[in-house]
Amino acid sequence: MKEPGNYPSKIDKSIDLAKRASVGLQNLTSRQKNQVLNSLADILLKNASSIIGANNKDIRAAKSEGKIPSFIERLALDREKIRSMARSLKEVAKLPDYVGRVMEEKNRPSGIRLKKIRVPLGLVAIIYESRPNVTVDAFALAFKSSNAVILKGGKEIKNTNRVLASLIKNLLKKNGINPNAAMDMSGIKKTETKKLLANKNIDCLIPRGGRGLIEFVRENAKVPVIMTGASVVHAYVDEEADLELAKKVIINAKTRRVSICNALDILLLNKKVCEPMLELLSADLSKKNVELRADKASFRILKQIKYPKLKPVKPADFDTEFLDYILAIKVVNDLDEALEHISAHTLGHSEAIITTSKKKADKFFKAVDAACLYWNTSTQFSDGGEFGLGAEIGISTQKLHARGPFAHEALTTYKYLAESKGKTRK
Asked: N or C: which end of the chain has fewer CB within 10 A?
């Protein structure tokens, strides 16, 4: 940390203040942290009107810029979503506190005694786009694990974030906690974001968003990063699938919420079931106004049954996270061809197989390299709350430190404590 007052820019000053605030968080008890989280849940509910008012400004700005409906859905808050955010805070408060926990303890032949204990990372920076709920989830999980947090939301939610961050900071101050432990940097310019990505005071940087954001962070970050978010989600319907079950799973995976990273993008159909499967799916997909981008084999079938929103698939579609009511379809000969396609196009997020064959499901689970794999199950379960984590910082698509939905435990590391009565090494 630099000496106070000696900063190259306002961004560096803000980061330094957050870093200094992180040191004091390690002294908070679990009871103190849980009290803050429970209080924040109540404060969100009491201030729902002002939060929604600020959010409406962001929605109007997004609409004036021509943002698509699924983008607006990610951005928008209403009273039910605020209640959900409050419930999530209370769930996080109930979770175990890992900070200070002894992971391992042993005596060594040398005479020293070792303890391996969990400690916070320190200062965590979250860069995300149009989801204001991430502001609350990220603060909650960082605070639960005694980390300070930089909340760098996109300019699309700057008004909403200003209100949410103000509520958080006021609560921290009221509880005698340095309010710089939650630093809002929503809407800062790209040049300032690059400074953020390069500041060595940040112990861990987590981008949460689409491929563009992930690539920007990958190219510019000079601090440790956990990659999350970007996905191209596949579901393969096998020749031994229960087609009614497959229909239920696919409709949910695609249409429950199209604007989230675990929504289905690519449907792979075994050639022996493609026709009956498409006939079963077409009515429900059409009701949901889903545009189908089909390869030659599936296009012919869909054209015959007069599917209303139909386009020939383009090669780029198989590498696209749609985040919209769009589904690409490819017919394959067998499981091996489906596995080849997934291997070539996956981003390692969530992938599914629908089959009655345990042997094929086992083969799929062993062959597919992704954080979350599903058998006869909707990919929309890739979520921290659904995995029992209370909330999530993101869904990691890498293999080191954290993978899949991760929360406050993954925002800790460990250190070794050694003690003896004057032992020296020979």
From this structure: C
